[in-house]
Design brief:
Length: 150
């Protein structure tokens, strides 16, 4: 009798515990992403140089197709064209994580880095006296960078 009472008590506790657990309802995606359509919209906006819409679509693609390099590459280009070089560098690096052989990403990243170096040399020229050896050297390097990237 005691065993049966213990089993009933255990069963009652188990049922009460399970009934007390709320299950969070599974929420279906509000709007499932159609990747092919989003790629098409992104490409059209990009070709039209509509940077706001193309950024929105390529960001959606980067989030929903995380292994793809191309959305990150396009985002890098968009950021570079909209004067956000730090974001562009990050996007090109994300491209290279996904495709280390993406030659255009390497090229564009290097150009941005050279431009940033050029800005540093330009600032250096403002800070040092014209008779300082660094002044002539910074002008020479700045000119070489300008020739490379412009």
């Amino acid at each position: 009798m005691a065993k049966r009472l213990n089993r009933c008590l255990l069963y009652s506790v188990l049922v009460a515990t399970l009934n007390g657990c709320e299950r969070s309802p599974t929420k279906p995606d509000k709007n499932p992403i159609n990747l092919a359509e989003t790629y098409s919209l992104a490409g059209k906006a990009y070709d039209a140089q509509n940077w706001t819409d193309s950024e929105k679509h390529y960001t959606t693609l980067a989030q929903n197709a995380p292994g793809e390099a191309e959305p990150w590459f396009k985002l890098g280009n968009i950021y570079a064209r909209t004067s956000r070089p730090e974001l562009a560098l990050q996007a090109y690096q994300e491209t290279l994580v996904r495709d280390p052989r993406h030659a255009k990403a390497w090229h564009n990243m290097a150009v941005l880095q050279l431009r940033n170096a050029g800005k540093s040399f330009s600032e250096l020229e403002k800070l040092v006296d014209s008779d300082d050896p660094l002044y002539a050297k910074s002008i020479k390097i700045q000119n070489a960078i300008d020739e490379l990237v412009n």
